[in-house]
């Protein structure tokens, strides 16, 4: 498992935001403070319940995903089932 600090679009480290690479499962996680905000494994994307906790959390989530759209598009993906929202644990 490898943990690195999230780097923003300006190339600066983001305090209290980390990317976790789990080589065993092939998953990448975004951690904001003590909350797992998202998991990406292949084409599967799962958001934690705090995915839109704040404007800043959402901004870093979009950066992690490489997503340039708006929140309503993410909400539509959740409504359609393309993105699942549930509690996430590293190693899943």
Written account of the structure:
With 92 residues, the chain is α+β, with helices and mostly antiparallel strands. It has one domain. It is built from 2 helices and 6 strands; from the N terminus they run E-E-E-E-E-H-H-E. A hairpin with a 2-residue loop joins strand 4 (35-41) and strand 5. The protein is globular, with a radius of gyration of 12 Å. The model has no long low-confidence stretch (mean pLDDT 95).
Our Rg estimate from Cα atoms comes to 12 Å
* Total number of domains: 1
pLDDT < 50 runs, ≥5 residues: none
Sheet with the most strands, sense and barrel status: 6 strands, mixed
Across the major sheet, the strand order is 1-2-3-4-5-6
What share of residues is helical?
Answer: 10-25%
The percent range for strand residues is: 35-45%
Coarse morphology: globular
Q: What is the overall pLDDT average?
A: 95
Which structural class fits the helix and strand makeup?
Answer: alpha+beta
Please work out how many helical segments DSSP would assign. Answer: 2
Number of strands: 6
Question: Kindly, what is the distance between the CA atoms of the first and last residues, rounded to a whole number of angstroms?
Answer: 13 Å
What letter string, H or E per element, gives the SSE order?
EEEEEHHE
